[in-house]
Design goal:
The structure is a homotrimer of 420-residue chains. Chain A is of the alpha/beta class and 420 residues long. Helices cover 30% and strands 24% of the residues of chain A. In chain A, the strands form five sheets. Chain A has an eight-stranded mixed beta sheet, with helices on both faces. Chain A has a four-stranded antiparallel beta sheet with strand order 5-4-9-6. Chains A and B meet through helix 10 of A and helix 6 of B.
């Protein structure tokens, strides 16, 4: 279904989005959404600074044009042009000449990973800073003065997020959400966006409506929730996508409910693909907001290696070279399989429940392409309380084979769908 | 309780039943039932071809008189007289001369077990075939013509099954069922019959009524269920017996309910005897029909090595030499212990529930032959929600000692039976 | 919290109580209670012989003044003055000269532990006996007569028990019970008393009322229950303390309910301290009575090495040298931690449940001394169904940190206590 084509296409998108200057707000986010909109149509929302959203307010908008640290020789030893990570997100403007001693409190490095530049923000701190490698820092001279410039604006403006909707035939919605706020983190941020875009492209006439939300972390999902409080009751299932492109295995973190439909579907798929399933924790990505106790939505988090669990996390090493087309394709395949379970999972009742029905005269005995054990399991467990996913798990037969058996049995009028 | 006498008696019955020409219907089944009736009285039921039974109809009756493959020299290279397995069950009559090439589609062998003859049927196929060893097949000549004869009849007649009932003092019934349809499979078919017969002989004035059903697999239990739909509500517990004579360990497959009384009793006994307990699957023997969702009866399957899990399964190697008197006796002992739990398991309420009662003045303290811990456990857990089996499992005290303690406590009016 | 002071103080109490002649009734018990009353005020109850108590009657009172076995040379080869264990509890008076052969049925030893004197009683046997080491017995001469004297009285009198109550601000009671009936068993009996006394001293203005009961085993708790049947409904939690001073690890035995509040609290504390948690059994100490099915109180048993599981159990080797101040302090710390959970455990509801509240503007983000993950967990799970203990267990964060986070969140009006 995916082939190398999808993996390469997703990787190209990651590479294209990587150099942009994203933050919680600002033009880097808008440029990101414009590129996504070349792939799938987006509705972009601009929410003014100061708008009350749940317990919060939409913050000021931040934009960055230039940032550097220049030595006496006029060389930019730190230069935003080399990486968006070099400036602390939401830094206030600064233009000064300072000694290294004065600068130190504003310089962020990773002493244990001396070649890497860290990712740092100071959203609500009204301060500024530069990020650089420990090796670069070690090359600076104690007795020298440096010119520091951060050409940023932090002013009333807007928070920007976007939606793409694939309408389904039924009443339920599936929410797919990615954070858009991190600059230059290829697997952590961009891989999830690329998988979401690929999923959106792949959906044709689904049963559920699929709503894709691209928004900054925390404040973005809080803003979306504040503006969509009537909509959340329609959300049947949801997935947050992040850390989606590294070579490690899949990890699914359950929703707060733990046994919601998406939890069962994702646990089934991820476990079958050799991945790991972990319980909900109130720390991570926007599932924190969707799973706050007032909403308690059935939204889980799908990653490969989880946030904080790989050394490249939140550093300049999380670049497009860290992401592989194979990993992106594998994440996409897992998401597709989860979606197939969400689409195809149904509950049936056996219309011939006394003894086994005679399958031979209905062409359901030994039929090539039909899994005979799946036929027997669906007949036996279709009592209105077991859905097809439960039957697949109990029988250890792949969901697709169980769903196929159910379709054949329904066509033969031996089972009938009930409820949902 | 069993001794070698029971084991040898059961083995003798297996040997006596082994040569008969059993199939789904026909005189081989009738002869089988006649031999069983020498041990325990049977009520034999004959149900006419075409009778509607649940989703099925009673099929035509099949009888076989002779079958062979004769070479040009007049030698019977395959001969029904040597084994009932040599003819495919329900083969239509045939009398022809054919080349080996023409014959091949009608000859069934086991290439991986070249010395063995397979067991095959074609109940609803209106075709014919012979079963032989791969070695025999290899000895046939490509350039030779063979005379094939199957002297069978497939015509309106009857499906034959039988019942033996041991009346109990209470209202509940225990169903014990064995399939009678397989020719010359000693452990798979005949050992279960022998154990059932031995159990029937051993029951005297039980609490429950024990109903033994000897019927062809699938269509036989479907016919019985169709003719006993009012009776099934009385079935409190049930066991299907099959694959009961091989030297491997015991296996109990739970009913569809999973935690029915018979499941708890059999799991307790089989686990204590070092056997294996597995969950229900809708594949196996007639528990498939009893556990169809419309009936959902509390009927499990007791075997030694399960169907399909031993290399002799459905081959000529499943002969009386494969069955041992020790294995038969061990299966019988397990069934007896399960029956004892079904008979003795009760729920009590403590009549002196505030503090421990003073046991000494009632002769229940330090009494030889009474398990003091069993006394304390029965007193503590007799609150109307724990039956004796639950107490035995929680306390890890053998069921018999718990039941004995309960009898002593009931005699001292410290506990009283409730409900059932 | 405890330091070596508490451990040494408890050990001193064990040493002081060790020489007294305790039994089910009598002056040894009264002297024990008098010494305890020097530490914490006691209300002493005297219940007359013959008083009906549940299924029992208060027995006669037993007192012992002297007991010995004297050889022909006039030496006391067994002498009560050397250990209270030398006389079988509740021995009737005797003063005779007997051969060793006549004596043997009255002499109790431990052949496998030849240096130790066993602990024996015969409460309801109207017999007598002496306990001695196997080595002493082996030194007696077959051909010699011995003078045996037991100067005891067994007559109408009283059963004595005592209570100490620390009133709490709330309506619930916590029951702490120790048995007082065993002579000269330092860890088995006296360590539990010492820990209870230390706990009583440590409580100041608790939420719950703490009721300490010092009573003889079995008949004492039965008497207490009989006289307090109206009170038991107020018991929210309870602990029986015994075997509290040996160097082994902690063991908590759950109440009959298995998941009562005290079970969850004690399991959490004991597991975190590397101890063992076991299921209820109707054998042990007075939890047997509190957990009889009529009362079914939430009372567990806290020990170090459990009764019967250490070789010194019920022998003269269970002396003050077997008990360590460190072990006593560790038991006390565990009890204090359990009490802290019982005191501090509450259920809250999040007052800002839609999305995460903005913690920064409330001084709850990155605040030194506050566990940020505990803050997030309490917010996420405070929906009226998870108490703080459940949150601590789910998050694997220490209870104290969770409770502290909850206090900070409650002070910020982000959560509100509900029910209890």
């Amino acid at each position: 279904m995916t082939g190398t084509g999808a993996g390469e296409r997703m990787h190209a998108l990651v590479r294209r989005l990587h150099p942009l200057h994203r933050s919680m707000t600002g033009d880097g986010v808008r440029q990101t959404l414009e590129i996504i909109a070349e792939e799938v149509p987006l509705t972009v929302h601009e929410v003014p600074t100061g708008t009350p959203v749940l317990d919060w307010q939409v913050p000021r908008e931040w934009n960055i044009r230039d940032a550097y640290l220049k030595n006496r020789a006029g060389e930019r030893v730190v230069d935003l042009a080399r990486s968006p990570l070099h400036v602390v997100g939401y830094s206030v403007p600064v233009s000064r000449t300072m000694t290294l001693a004065e600068l130190r409190g504003h310089l962020h490095t990773l002493p244990d990973q001396p070649e890497l530049v860290p990712y740092r923000t100071s959203y609500y701190g009204d301060t500024w800073g530069l990020c650089l490698s420990e090796n670069t820092l070690r090359g600076l001279r104690e007795d020298e003065e440096y010119e520091v410039l951060i050409d940023s604006t932090l002013a009333d403006g807007h928070l920007t997020y976007a939606e793409h909707v694939v309408e389904g035939s039924g009443a339920g919605e599936v929410l797919i959400e990615c954070h858009t706020c991190h600059p230059a983190l290829a697997s952590e941020t961009l891989a999830g966006i690329a998988v979401a875009v690929e999923l959106a492209r792949s959906l044709t006439a689904p049963r559920h409506t699929y709503r894709f939300v691209f928004a900054p972390g925390t404040i973005g999902s809080i803003t979306w929730l504040a503006r969509n409080r009537d909509r959340v009751e329609h959300i049947r299932h949801g997935l947050v996508l992040a850390c989606a492109g590294d070579p490690g295995g899949l990890t699914y973190k359950r929703s707060r409910r733990g046994d919601a439909g998406v939890d069962r579907a994702a646990a089934h798929v991820v476990a079958a693909r050799g991945g790991t399933v972990v319980d909900f924790t109130p720390f991570g990505y926007d599932e924190r907001q969707f799973c706050s106790p007032g909403f308690d939505l059935p939204v889980g988090l799908l990653t490969r290696t989880p946030n904080g669990a790989f050394p490249e996390y939140h550093t300049s090493a999380d670049d497009p070279g860290f992401v592989t087309a194979e990993a992106l394709a594998d994440t996409f395949t897992a998401v597709r399989e989860i979606v197939e379970v969400l689409e195809e999972n149904r509950t049936y009742v056996n219309l011939s429940p006394y003894g086994e029905p005679q399958l031979g005269r209905r062409g359901l005995y030994g039929t090539p392409g039909l899994d005979q054990m799946a036929i027997l399991w669906v007949l036996n467990l279709s009592d209105g309380t077991h859905d097809l996913l439960a039957i697949a798990q109990r029988s250890a037969i792949p969901f697709a084979a169980v769903a196929q058996a159910a379709r054949a049995l329904a066509a033969a009028a031996l089972i009938k769908e009930v409820g949902t």
